[in-house]
Amino acid sequence: MALTPLDLQTLFVKMNQVNREQAHLKGAEAQEQSFEAKKLVEQEIQKDSSVNRGADEGDMDNRIKDREEQTAEEREEKERKKKEADEKDREEKEYIKDPNLGQNIDLMG
Question: What does the alpha-carbon distance between residue 92 and residue 63 come to, in Å, rounded to a whole number?
Fold first, then answer.
């Protein structure tokens, strides 16, 4: 399909409009990118200037409340269970332990 002089004349008239649109699109991309960068900088400044309550502080408050709510009976029950578990561990260790372990020295090998 060949271009006729009439087609070329129409294209040349519209060429100026197309150039403006292309320049506008390129400028819009750069402007949008700078807007996003500015927005990110503002968010970082907001984060730096704000004071946030740490997660540890809330946990510490809860731990203190839990300690206050525990009664003496609950504490004794926990201690008794812990002692029983420790005794079981000791019994298992003693069962596996070899009484002659570390008593003999091998001079040949």
Answer: 33
- Give residue 98's identity as a one-letter amino acid code: D
Helix/strand number for the chain, H first, E second: 3, 0
The four Cα atoms 20, 21, 26, 32 give a dihedral, to 10 degrees, of: 120
pLDDT in tens, the chain (109 residues): 677 887 878 888 888 888 888 888 888 888 888 899 999 999 999 888 887 766 555 566 666 666 666 677 788 888 999 999 888 887 766 656 677 777 888 788 6
96 Cβ contact list (under 8 Å, min separation 6): none
The rounded Cα 84 to chain-centroid distance in angstroms is 39
User: Which pairs with CB-CB distance under 8 Å and at least 24 residues apart come from 38-43?
Assistant: none
Which tokens belong to 93? 């260790």
